[in-house]
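Hi R.,

Here are the chain sequences for the assembly we discussed:
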Amino acid sequence: MKKIILATATLLIAAHAVEAREQIKIVGSSTVYPFSSYTAEALGATTDFKTPVVESTGSGGGMKLFCAGNGMDTPDMTNASRRMKAKEFKKCQKNGVKYITEMVVGYDGIAIAQSKGAQPLNLTRKEMMLAVAAEVPNKEGTALIANPYHYWNEISETLPKRKITIYGPPASSGTRDAFEDMILKGITKKMPVYTDLYKADKVKNKKYKKFHNIRQDGVYVPSGENDNLIVKKLAKDTASLGIFGYSYLVENSDSIAAATIEGVAPSPEAVQNGSYKLSRSLYFYIKQSHIKKVPGMLEYANLFLSEQMVGDDGECADIGLIPLPEAMRDHYRDNLKNLTRMKPSDLKQKH
Amino acid sequence: MNNRVDMDNQTDMNQLTEVTKTASFMNNNKSDRQIKRKRADRRFHWYGFTAIAMALAFLVFFFVDIIGQALPAFDQTEVHVTVNYTKAATKNYNKAVDKSVRRIVSRAWLRSIPQYLEAHPEMIGTSHDEWVPADSRVDQFIKEHDGHGLKSKYQRTVKEMQQENRVRSVFNTTLFTRGDSKLPEYAGIWAAAVGSVFTLLITMLVAVPIGVMTAIYLEEFAADNRFTRLIEVNINNLAAIPSILYGLLGLAIFISFFGVPRSSALAGGLTLALMTLPVIIITTRASLRAVPESIREAAYGLGASNLQTTWHHVLPLAMPGILTGSIIGLAQAMGETAPLIIVGMMAYIPDAPTSILDATTVLPAQVYTWSTESLRGYSERTAAGILVLLTVLLSLNALAVKLRNRAQQTW
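And here is the predicted structure of the full complex:
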């Protein structure tokens, strides 16, 4: 038994001394995770490098781990479904993570679609939020009530008298996350009627900070991962809407058409220039101080940015990534080649 | 059984009529109470029976459902294609097969070709007809599962291939020989199983000696005072706290303070050891207590020291009980996921670990990761993972029961 205790103790001390690492460690957004882990596997399968470890911690959690320091126990890269915040950049600088290279791999977008035969529809993000949230402000906007809306014209007089039925992704899917982030959280976190409740009791009313509960009275129908089934339902019930990943809309443009969001129809150009609001850029960040210590980091980044992965017909596009415009892809490849360092002023620019 | 009860009632009634002739109102009332009591008895019997029937029904439903879902995972579809090991294929693996079947064959297999050719340069320039693993979508289409996701133009190709007998189904060895993959047809539980063994070994090496020694100290040596009673109460409480708290503890102590690598078997094993300790201490103390005092006194009477008494007499007699407790504690640790999320073991880690410092995942974490994947191929693999995990846990528990039966001693 003495030996066992001794052995454990030595192991603990040995664990302290780990300096170089053979395996890349990546943390961050669950939205980027499918593409990141796909690339990681491809790197492991086609080269002699060990397959990188990819952990899905959420964008914020990833930044926290990434910016914790330069030690080998911190991750080498972090994925994010939003840009690094100035606050996070400062924290990185404070902890000695000085040189960071920023990469954009593509976009993630969702489309609100209906049957091709239905009347064209234009919605704002707020109207969409009011249609699906579990609790909405009352007419005076003073308090929250259970969602009373069953027809679109009840939400806004400019909308047609159409029954609200929305077929959407179930709770586990990435599309649902994107939908909740961009439509529910994005709108409700700026509405005092929600946030005041949170400020009044931060523990009990935590959900009102970024309210994203979806109504469960049958108006929003979670429809499994089978998008084909939703298309069939949309054809039968032309008043209903469906929520899809953007890539699915493209593949099925013969049977479904997108509703315009704030006047803009989803298209690669609208996604890429940012005018289509239901899309976001996907980032990853490289810790330069680790490049010499962990083998394969640049190879991984190069593979991730290669045409084979994120090109127009790339393998990541197959699993739902919207590619960057070609010029942008070249721009980020140049950044990678020169290991361009991120400056605080970069964070003020809009993509 | 009902008949007998009825008969009893009948006799009661007969007695009742006889008795009423002579007896008072009191006696009549007593018989009424007797009937009521018997009824309550029968009802109680049925409550118990319904409860166990329901529990069994749930269990049967669960097993039938899991096994039904898991079975397809043990079959993997293969397709017969011509593979051209050309010079071009060493650069671009897509060139190795004809364009028409490029999306039919597994991409994981396809991209392994350049490395294969590097290892076997003599193959370059040849071309073979081979059975190769099919893409997961094709696999799901052949198994006729909803949501297979195969595009209709490929569906036609697969149907044609089926007519030409170029599609077959074989036992899915990949499931047991490979680690996680983003392509379902190449995903397996091997890496997670190795990780589970590593993690559990650490847990065992740490929790069992410490737990047993603590119990021996508390039971055989420590004085019964307020301090030891405080420790005792705390240990009992620790056995009942939510396991995720141990994860937070593990993160704070082992990873942040001692610098154990995140996601490693060492970090996970130590965390689970914290969780298992109270269970082992409590069961060990119970089995030490079950050893009769007379045995200790006999040893002391022959001049044995404390150490000799414990080591030569008490511990061997309590050993089966200690083993049972430890095995059950370890089985619980094996099925645990919550604390491991916190120490970073819930991640995409496809390689089996080679040391306890390597990043690794464990079986229940692998099952969870697969259950969140959207591709149809993963849902059957999730069920298969659960099945494997259940088999391991049931065999561990069976071992514990066997040890306990062997150990049943009458003093």
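The mean pLDDT of chain A is 84. The interface with chain B takes residues 1, 4-5, 7-8, 11-12, 14-16, 18, 23, 25, 33-34, 37-38, 40-42, 44-46, 50-51, 53-56, 73, 172-174, 224-226, 228-229, 315 of chain A (CB under 8 Å).

Let me know if anything looks off.

Best,
T.
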